[in-house]
Amino acid sequence: MKKYITTPIYYTNGAPHIGHAYTTILADVFKKFEQMKGNDVFFSTGTDEHGQKNQHTCEAAGLPIDVFLEKQSGLFQAVFDRMGIDYDYFVRTSGEPHKEVVRSILTDLYDRGMIIKKSYEGLYCEGCEQFKKESDLDENGLCPDHKKAPKLILEENYFFRLEPYREWLREYIQLHPDWIKPQNYAKEVLKMLEEPLDDLCISRPKSRVWLGIELPFDKDFVTYIWFDALINYISTLKFGSNPDFNSYWANSYHLLAKDILKPHCIYWPIMLKAIGIEPVGKCIVHGYWIGEGGVKMSKSLGNVVDPNEVIDMMGVEPLRFYLINAMSISSDSPISISLLKQGYKQLANALGNLQMRVIKMVDKNLQGEIPSDVSLLAEDMEVLESVSKSFADVYKKDIDLETAIELSDCIMQACNKLNMYFANNEPWGLVKDETKMERFKQVVYTTLDALRLIATAIYPLMPNVAHSILKSLSADNEKLTAEFNPKALGVGKVIVPDPLFPYLG
Ligand code: ME8
Predict the structure, then answer these.
(1) Which residues sit opposite 157 in a β-bridge?
(2) Domain 2-305 adopts which CATH fold?
(3) How far, CA to CA in Å, does 301 sit from each of 146, 147, 294, 452?
(4) What is the pLDDT along the chain (505 residues), one digit of tens a residue?
(5) How far apart are CA 154 and CA 161, in angstroms?
(6) Contact predicate 182/329, CB 8 Å
(7) Which residues are catalytic?
(8) CATH level 3 topology of 337-472
(9) Which of 45, 55, 288, 468 could form a disulfide with 332 if both were Cys (CB 3.0 to 4.6 A apart)?
């Protein structure tokens, strides 16, 4: 089956931080998860390169716009490449293929009378690149996300009417309870849809914003950044010319944080409806990583955790695992270097140490030979079967925030169960008694086979760790699929590995 997974396209007005890393890692985990199930996944990410915010940052940097955008977008590509993100397409909205699709959609909607010109006065938050209502602001009249007062703006602009689609969208959300997940965000959107929707201002006068796609029907205006950016999700799939468009779109997933719920779950489905396309398959929404000061980490506030710094300290894969495991389902999650170190130590204790101990034991006492000809006791089979079943059950689930968290929880639980099994059976004692050699072999085989199952299940989260474990079990040729058969580790020799998670200090 074809599947399409997207991340938001990120503003180029700052360097990527852990928040951007997270959503992109989540998408990569889902891609690998689906590939293990045999699905054909197209995964896109990219940068949002227009609008006032990017324009002001470029002006302050004193660089020519192309140089600025290339440099800033490159920061995202570099960190994604460093994190092993296997994206299929990196969209840059300043690129011609994207702009062409935006222009053709604008022309079509304008020709059908769905875009009108009028004057408008409103409060504009540059951080959000959105007009705000008084009710969107905090008690001090500031944008709750950017802690800045919006500016009062009066100008002539082009508008797209949202209100005619409000009832349809409400019904759509009610009829598709899994369309926005977790469901608390669906409730939030339904609440927004209780009030009539203002017309969406889809242009900006060039006198104020020059960085954007010129309107095909009025050269004095550029396209509003959100109208332009949302279209990336279909321009990436080459809407209008790709014969596979419908099969990818039918199983499509937008990943995003709650800051951009409204554009994705109100503007975008309505824009698609007007264009004649069904809404995206599912919107997967997550909360914020909360940085120092107990507020959302953001470039504008300067309280960010830099993914490059974390990777230098602990490597990519422990970061991937930590982020997936530590995000809570429907609220925000704290992050700091010390929390990341704690997560690293847990992995080292639960997985790295066990792998090293059992492999060294086999190396020393069985000349490295995996004792695959032993017959196991019921107690051993119970460990293997319960671990296999828990993985098989998670891998049956659809892409969802809960699924990602559950996968990482399941792996930690399997590691804990295995550690307990190993400790209770005391193989270091068994090996000293000739009459208990058979039991020793059963225990180490069970542990090695369970490690093989864990390595397979962990692949979407930590692909290199998965390969290293399999290699240490001489099982690196094993195809990584979502089949978890117990007692399938064959003959071979273990290879004493380098530590998976070296001591951090
Ligand atoms: O909104 N915690 O771009 P953006 C968790 N260009 N995730 C976070 C986060 C945090 N503290 N901070 C950022 C834009 N993110 C638009 C999107 S899409 C058509 C246009 C992640 O650079 C999260 O995915 O502000 C969030 O939705 C996104 O970065 C916002 O990135």
Answers:
(1) 118
(2) Rossmann fold (3.40.50)
(3) 7, 8, 12, 44
(4) 999 999 999 999 999 999 999 999 999 999 999 999 999 999 999 999 999 999 999 999 999 999 999 999 999 999 999 999 999 999 999 999 999 999 999 999 999 999 999 998 889 998 888 888 888 899 999 998 889 999 999 989 999 999 999 999 999 999 999 999 999 999 999 999 999 999 999 999 999 999 999 999 999 999 999 999 999 999 999 998 999 999 999 999 999 999 999 999 999 999 999 999 999 999 999 999 998 777 777 767 777 788 999 999 999 999 999 999 999 998 899 998 889 999 999 999 999 999 999 999 999 999 999 999 999 999 999 999 999 999 999 999 999 999 999 999 999 999 999 999 999 999 999 999 999 999 999 999 999 999 999 999 999 999 999 999 999 999 988 789 999 999 999 999 999 999 999 998 7
(5) 19
(6) yes
(7) 17, 20, 125, 128, 143, 146, 296, 299
(8) Isoleucyl-tRNA Synthetase; Domain 1 (1.10.730)
(9) 288
Cα-to-centroid distance, 49 and ligand 1 (Å): 14
Candidate of 6, 12, 22 to mutate for ligand 1, largest count of ligand atoms within 8 Å of Cβ: 22
Give me the torsion for CA of 315, 321, 323, 328, rounded to 10°. Answer: -160
| CA-10 nearest atom, ligand 1 | 22
Going by alpha carbons, the residue nearest to atom 14 of ligand 1 is 10
Per-domain residue ranges of the chain: 2-305, 337-472
Which residues contact ligand 1 via a Cβ below 6 A?
A: 8-11, 19-20, 22-23, 48, 229-230, 232, 256-257, 259-260, 288-289, 296-298
